[in-house]
Known about the structure:
By secondary structure, the chain is α/β, with parallel strands linked by helices. It contains 12 helices and 8 strands. The chain has helices spanning 26-33, 41-53, 57-77, 97-104, 117-126, 145-150, 152-157, 181-190, 209-221, 231-235, 259-263, 267-272, and strands at 9-10, 83-87, 109-114, 134-139, 165-169, 197-203, 242-243, 282-288. It has an 8-stranded mixed β-sheet with strand order 1-4-3-2-5-6-8-7. Strand 5, helix 8 and strand 6 (197-203) form a beta-alpha-beta unit. Helix 1 packs across helix 2 and helix 2 runs antiparallel to helix 9. The longest helix is centred in the first third of the chain and has 21 residues, at 57-77. It is globular. The relative contact order is 0.16.
Amino acid sequence: MGGTPQRPERAGPRVPLDLRTDRPHAARVYDVLLGGKTNYSSDRAMAEQVVANIPSARRTALANRAFIHRATRYLAAEAGIRQFLDIGTGIPTSPNLHEIAQDVAPDSRVVYVDNDPIVLAHSRALHIGHPSGRTAYMEADAADPDAILAAPVLHDTLDLGRPVALSMCLLLHWLPAESDPYAVVRRLTGELAPGSHLVITHLARDLDESGSGRLEADFEASGSQLKARTKDEVARFFDGLSLVEPGIVVPHRWRPGPVLEVVGANATTAATGTDEEYAAPVWAGVAAKGG
Length: 291
């Protein structure tokens, strides 16, 4: 494709970073589960607790990541989306969302949003996009959708008058109850043009009630909030939108492709859906906004 890779723009001035390494952060715990190295002892300790409570956690993290790749490719290749807003992006790990989108459509534009300073520290080095497109990063709190929507970097990168794919994967279960996660999603999707899509993965209470309950208690003890939800509760995030087939399913069931055999513990059962139906206690879905 040629050209000079385009580095992301970043919102706000450079300020000293407080990485808050003394307490686990969701993005870094997820990095541990994916086998990454951008994490600290507090994150690794919490990841061990996560695996103790949900033994399939590492497989689930990989299945979630594979789902994001498939959903992004679907949105770019089949739905014709050229703009992506990824909130709760996490530690950059190649291939990133923009690499998937720009592999299909080099002119794709992507804005990443996260509130972990270490994501900010790594974003300029790892979120490098195709020169035909554009990649930007902002540090913001997902619980404050008004701040995200008002950010100049968002409007400099994306045209909200045209369809946007809003990705909120493994994010909404972290938002505090007082922020009303449903209101957050409504506020964001309400500003998007018809033809836009919403992509969500969410910890599933009804697929592992005991494990998710212990996980909630562990994170609360560490100073974080976590709330698993049932399939019906996750479905409420898609109210007013049209779910893309196959609807809300475990991530490895959403339009499975060749990657499934790599991340699954058992390729045969993963493909047939017999013994491993709920191996990943997460609900995943993609939905479109109508006119």
